[in-house]
Structure formats: structure tokens, C-alpha cells
Write a structure and sequence with these properties.
Layout (H helix, E strand, L loop, with lengths): L1 H17 L26 H4 L3 E5 L3 E5 L5 E6 L13 E3 L12 E4 L2 E11 L13
Antiparallel strand pairs: 1-2, 2-3, 3-6, 4-5, 5-6
Length: 133
């Protein structure tokens, strides 16, 4: 009986956690127009990390902080593992817990120094594929 009750409670909890109203989901935050494209830093990345990222080939990456603001980081030279990365790390050793253009991305076993980190509206929307008919 206790085992059945525990399984039922776990099942109910997992269903309740997966049903989130669309209005309750946090939207991406956008930057004011005067901040876009300007050098900036991501505060507290060393302690709270990133929310999301999307590679832009092997020369750049969009990074999203925990407040859902987007940044665009340009790397020095090609970072060949970046387009295939499932996770990335950051090295902020010279700047405490914030990431700026002096930081380094850690992608698999590759160290990719940054040359720029600017405020961005995020990656462009992906093109929809045409259905073959």
C-alpha cells in the first residue's frame, strides 16, 4: 500500500510539474535599443551559470543568462567544437565571477578566448522547412 501510494504521488507530482500555463513561462528579456551591440559583461556567471546557448558556426555563440537576456560572444580564431557542443563552460579567472571579452569559453577540450561580448536580441529565428508534397 505504501509503495503504491508513493508511486501515485510521484506520478501526480511529475504531471503537475509538466503542466505549466503559457502565461506563467518566463519570456525572453530584450535589451533597450541603446545597449544592443555594445560591449558588456554577464554578471555572476561564475556562480549561477548560463541558461542557454546557441552556436553561430565556429566563430561565435549566443549566450543566454539566467535572467533570459541574450549576448553574442565572438571567439578568437575558429572554435571547431563549438557547432557540435552540447554544453560549454566559461573561464573567468581574470575577472572574478563575470564574463566579458577577456574570458574564455571551454568547449570539450578546446579553450576559445573571446574577443568580444555584446548585448544581443538572441539568435535569428530558424527558417521553417518546406513540406515535400
Amino acid at each position: 500500500m505504501i509503495r503504491t501510494l508513493t508511486i501515485a504521488m510521484l506520478a501526480a507530482a511529475s504531471l503537475a510539474g509538466s503542466v505549466v500555463p503559457a502565461a506563467a513561462k518566463q519570456q525572453d528579456r530584450t535589451w533597450p535599443a541603446d545597449k544592443l551591440g555594445k560591449e558588456t559583461s554577464i554578471p555572476f556567471i561564475g556562480t549561477i551559470g548560463l541558461y542557454n546557448f546557441e552556436a553561430d558556426g565556429d566563430r561565435g555563440v549566443w549566450l543566454q543568462d539566467q535572467q533570459r537576456r541574450w549576448y553574442y560572444a565572438t571567439v578568437l580564431g575558429p572554435c571547431t567544437d563549438l557547432p557540435f557542443a552540447y554544453r560549454i563552460g566559461v573561464d573567468t579567472r581574470f575577472n572574478g565571477t563575470q564574463l566579458d571579452r577577456t574570458g574564455t569559453l571551454l568547449v570539450d577540450r578546446q579553450h576559445c578566448p573571446l574577443t568580444s561580448l555584446v548585448a544581443s536580441n538572441g539568435p535569428p529565428p530558424k527558417a521553417k522547412k518546406a513540406k515535400k508534397g
